[in-house]
């Protein structure tokens, strides 16, 4: 493994991984990958244990970090859709490796 700079503020672990490593961000990214377009309510229904406040905050953060995009349509009622960006898609192969590892080692780690 390549040596990692662990010094603040140049540490990639602190500065990049912390932006999507919470449990909600990864779940939302997995929902939207590879090409799903979902509305707020659809995301909320797919992750029933997330609060509205947490979902709203997580979506705002993922938007800020350019991992998802938000398209709002001037309709009545208003329609807003979320999808994964190319930057978000480029992250997903690494996430898939972590998911596979988690599935393989779930019982061992959870003991």
CATH architecture: Orthogonal Bundle
Report the radius of gyration as a whole number of Å. Answer: 16 Å
What percent of residues adopt helix (DSSP H or I)? 40-55%
How far do the termini sit from each other?
Answer: 28 Å
Strands of the widest sheet, in order across it, are 1-3-2
Query: Might you state the CATH topology name?
Result: Arc Repressor Mutant, subunit A
Structural class: alpha+beta
Total helices: the number is 5
Provide the β-strand percentage band.
5-15%
Mean pLDDT: 92
- Tell me the number of structural domains: 1
| Shape estimate | globular
What can be said about the biggest beta sheet? 3 strands, antiparallel
Count the E strands: 3
Compressed to H and E, one letter per element, the order equals HHEHHEEH
Low-confidence stretches: none
Q: What is the CATH C-level name?
A: Mainly Alpha
Q: What is the CATH H-level superfamily?
A: Winged helix-like DNA-binding domain superfamily/Winged helix DNA-binding domain
